[in-house]
Design a protein that fits this description.
DUF2848 domain-containing protein, alpha+beta, DUF2848, single chain, Fumarylacetoacetate hydrolase, domain 2, 17 strands, 5-stranded mixed β-sheet
Length: 228
């Protein structure tokens, strides 16, 4: 079972044994825009969901706090997201980057989500401490062709996505709202013309009320070619 550890603003450390990992998809708050995005993806051969928003179970060991992500080929990329983490006494909010296999995505979104990790930040906020101003929290992603992400590829706020409380209700309906459940939010639009197949990724959430930020950063390492 995967163990994660998060530092809260007051210095408290929260340890979590991940039992369920879930990736939300097509989770924009404006579902008309979501449908337009589905149509765009269909032109690229990516199969559309049977319903929106979607939720994909992912192997729990793919919830990771790492600085390197190992992939099998060059067509993989991250996605700027937030993550909901249920602990014994709190619900935490942190930053995440859902690394996705784009070659596999055309065969099945759920399959592509299980091909690479969901990389989570090492710091988190208590959801109750930011709930009243969630929509003001920014969500940004950067990519880089070297080890340093230096080009902005995603720039939005949590207002663009369905809320943590929405997903907590979904988890409750499915009997999954218990300690050890981690849900990744789904992502926001990428900037056109920026190469997402990058060497490095960084995602950051910033709270304008407190001035605090959460971030996660990693480099992508391509594994050696297989024999056979």
């Amino acid at each position: 079972m995967t163990a994660l550890s998060f530092e809260l603003p007051d210095g408290t450390i929260k340890n979590v044994q991940v039992r369920h990992l879930l990736n939300a998809g097509y989770a924009g708050r404006e579902q008309d825009e979501v449908q337009a995005h589905i149509a765009e993806l269909a032109e690229l051969g990516v199969p559309g969901p049977t319903t929106t928003p979607a939720m994909y179970p992912v192997s729990p060991y793919l919830a990771q706090q790492v600085s390197e992500v190992f992939v099998q080929h060059a067509r993989t990329s991250g996605e700027a997201e937030w993550a909901l983490v249920i602990t014994d006494h709190d619900v935490l909010l942190t930053v995440a980057c859902d690394h996705t296999d784009r070659e596999l995505e055309v065969h099945g979104v759920a399959w592509s989500k299980n091909a690479s990790p969901d990389v989570l930040g090492r710091k988190a906020w208590r959801l109750e401490d930011v709930r009243d101003h969630l929509d003001r929290i920014s969500l940004r992603g950067w990519v880089g062709q070297g080890d340093t992400p230096d080009t902005l590829i995603q720039d939005s706020s949590l207002e663009a996505l369905l809320t943590p409380d929405y997903w907590l209700e979904v988890l409750a309906e499915r009997g999954l709202n218990h300690p050890g459940t981690v849900l990744i939010s789904g992502t926001v639009a990428m900037t056109g013309g920026v190469n997402q197949f990058a060497r490095s990724w960084k995602v950051e959430m910033t709270d304008p009320v407190t001035g605090e930020s959460l971030d996660v950063q990693y480099v992508v390492e391509q594994m050696p070619q297989p024999i056979g």
